[in-house]
Amino acid sequence: MNEHNSAKGRYSYDSTSTGGLINFLNRNVTPYATEAGGPKFDLVPVTKQKDLMINHARMYAQQEYNRIMELVAVLQKQANQIKRRLEVTDAVHAAEYQFSPVMGNAYWLVWEKRKQKTLLVLTGPTEWSTGVPTDYEYMAQVKYMGDHTWLELNDQGNPVE
User: pTM higher than 0.85, yes or no?
Assistant: First the structure.
């Protein structure tokens, strides 16, 4: 071979007597056999490899998607709770009452049918010794929170989910 041989890569060039370059395959760097007596090699099953890769990608992507959607569901629930809390707070602030609410205490929102207005009262529907006033319609039990919002409570006195 000539000193001009630049057989550094898979495809190399050699010079001819006329000074031109001839492309040749450098057998030393090719991963495949280049002669009939060379080592046997199997073709890579590209389609099968692609199928495996896409299946793995889909599986992991679906797991991540499901995890994110669980987080979204938690955030959606929290957003709905905050929205409801603001609605209850607006209802309480629109109601009439003749006392100073104490943070942490529970009260009742009542619709007074006769006067057509909402009241905030201290007495629940089961706490009357003479019976519930006939023109009261109990709407919700609410609790005054430390952040000056109002939280709706269920019959057991727990926050409404």
Answer: no
